[in-house]
Fold these 3 entries.
Entry 1:
Amino acid sequence: MKIKPEEFKVLTQYIYKISGIFLDPSKAYLLETRLKSLLEQEKASSYLELYKKALADPTKRIEKAIIDAITTKETLFFRDQAPFDLLKFKILPDLIDRRSKTTSKHLPIKIRIWSAACSTGQEVYSIAIAIKETIPDLEKYNITILGTDISDEAIAKASYGKYNKFEIERGLPPDKLRKYFDPTPDGQWRIKDEIRFMANFRKINLMKPFSILGKFDIIFCRNVAIYFAPEDKKKLFERIAQVLQPDGYLIIGSTESLAGITDLFVPKRYLRAIFYQLKSFKG
């Protein structure tokens, strides 16, 4: 079913309000593609009727279904290897070196990592595997990874940590598959508990305050701000600056830049990767 211009306007305003995702008129095809099955499921005769049903639904079930349908779940294990090399060979060693100087010898070194817009969890588990391979004596550390996403469906899948053959083959080398995943009776693969227990997941809308999450040493916020309007990008990264430790690290997408968005961060390069640190940090 073709979406009418007035329906597109109403729906995109609604989607922006509930998720912060900005869709320009060139994305009409995306709405048609993503919402087609939901239209049939809800027996809505038009996109406008689907919108009205969503507004009238006190359980917000339809609203959640629209978010699940619209949010991009394009993800894979070790997507763009550079950030994970950066984590293993630059960020973790530097952080551990600094933290060891300020942490009592009797206490584990604490490092908190946040994967914002983690989708179905591949980035979170890639981070966990990279840490496992970098730090052999993990029991001496207190390293936690938080994965957040706006989609209930994505968070549920990430929490369970089970992936089909297609998802596994996207970015995961065979040696890592055998080492960190167990086959399941239905022909899929589930992340081993030793990796799964390193991560927690929760639903978060990045357009709303998230200071309740506390402070983080490392934040991955890759390929999500590209769906936000310029003023919302600025607000997002200003809020991220508030939850980043003074000497923390921010990693964004390889094709993204904070130039012209905010001056709170300074870009730095390591090998093929760019990372950001707060301008106030003089390290």
Note: DSSP finds eleven helices and ten strands in the chain.
Entry 2:
Amino acid sequence: MKKRTGEILSLLDAKYGTEFICYLNYETPWQLLIATMLSAQCTDARVNIVTKDLFQKYPSVEAFADTDLKELEQDIKPTGFYHNKAKNIIACMKDIRDKYNGEVPSELEDLLSLAGVGRKTANVIRGNIYHVPSVVVDTHVKRISNRLGLTKNQDPDKIEQDLMKELPVDHWILWNIHIITFGRTICSARSPKCEDCFLQKYCKEYKM
């Protein structure tokens, strides 16, 4: 690990702590899987509002697998892209019911075989449910890892590979947790609060 990266991590740890936090509300692995699928192009706060009723209406993998597509579309409409999300959720839950005995798989290859599950979603499950060190690349991680010079790539898979090389394993999951908070409060996409930023000296885009 580069000295510079170590300094960035120390500052983030000091500011935000080292506790593993998930910003999506869930009680079971399949609930986290669905919540993560819904969070694509949608805020966690909005997803949590939707899933509060959703998980009461559909209390099991089977309930989602057997539901009517049009009905589910209306239930998840506030999260956006609801046609695709509803289709994928039903197909995904059918696979979990039929191929995996109702259990969300832990292996990356198995997770990626599920409808609507990409590397980001798979790594959220592996990190939060199975505690397998995983790098989750969302929009905040993509933007800020570039700004801080930890990657020069825009492709999420390449960014994931860069961060796995750059970050110590014990910070793979933490990086996402810290950077979500940092991205929401300080380093936003459109109007970052550069003057208030405790990482400004490490930023490639900060102009003195």
Note: Residues 165 and 176 are 15 Å apart (CA to CA).
Entry 3:
Amino acid sequence: MMTETIKIAAAQLAPVSLDKQATTDKVCQFIREAGDAGARVIGFPECIIPEYPAWDELIPMDRSQAHRLFRKLFFNSVEVPGPETEQIGQACKDSNLYAIIGVNERCAGTTGTTFNTQLLFGPDGSLLNKHQKYVPTVAERLIHANGQTGTSVSVPTDFGCLSGLICGENANPLAMYSLSLKYPVFHVASWPTHFTPEIEMQSCILNSTRGLAYALKCFVINSVGIIGEDEHIRQYLEEERRKPLATILGPDDNILAGPLKPGDGILYADINPSDVIVPKYAIDIAGHYNRPELFAQHFAKYFEGSGQEDSLRTLNL
């Protein structure tokens, strides 16, 4: 099915602030809208359910306002599996599409541990994969634990491998290299509502994901959160800092669709998955352009004097 044209989609939306059920309802509404439009894949922003904790870089952590927000975030975070994942799975099944959705995940049975998580659902409604952000970025460390490593961030589909990474992970060269070995055709990059006020977010998103699209030779769905009427965020940001916009990139790093206009919406692009093949004629970092022995110097010290020096050569490292 890689030669068939399919429709892919990037969701751009504001959460219903720190309201797990209302935001889940909104996400499911977007899934069904994309399904009605014929989309087979849709990506959603980082921690869209119940809200990206944007205040963590805006309000000092010792303020009572930050404490109230964290408490409310914890009680509205998603346990996996749970009623929210069941509801989203049903929406994907009804719509016959794949969806990658960012959630603030609460570790079941704890009173404080949360993760920045991407959930990947299939068109049969099943939860196919869970990816926790490897390393929380900047002030996220106040809220999120380190994610597990050694887990996949991709699944096979009828029309090629579908993958996802969260925010800054899309610029992590080791994450990118690991992902390349799965030969992704579609990749969802989930982004938050804003970065620190001094960083121009749209430039950062495109700089990161254009490099990823070009290196991996895949389509990239940039799904971006937007800030709603939440005064605990809006009061700290100038208007121009509240306008990140969704885009869809091709395997040669060009913008195929977008940027989407400000506000809630879904960006679509009709693409042919086989268009990822010809770009690899020149550069395929998982194939003929791959030199894994470049890592040998970093591993050699672990083998030195162990009698296992030949292991490096056996593994082509």
Note: The longest strand covers residues 98-106.
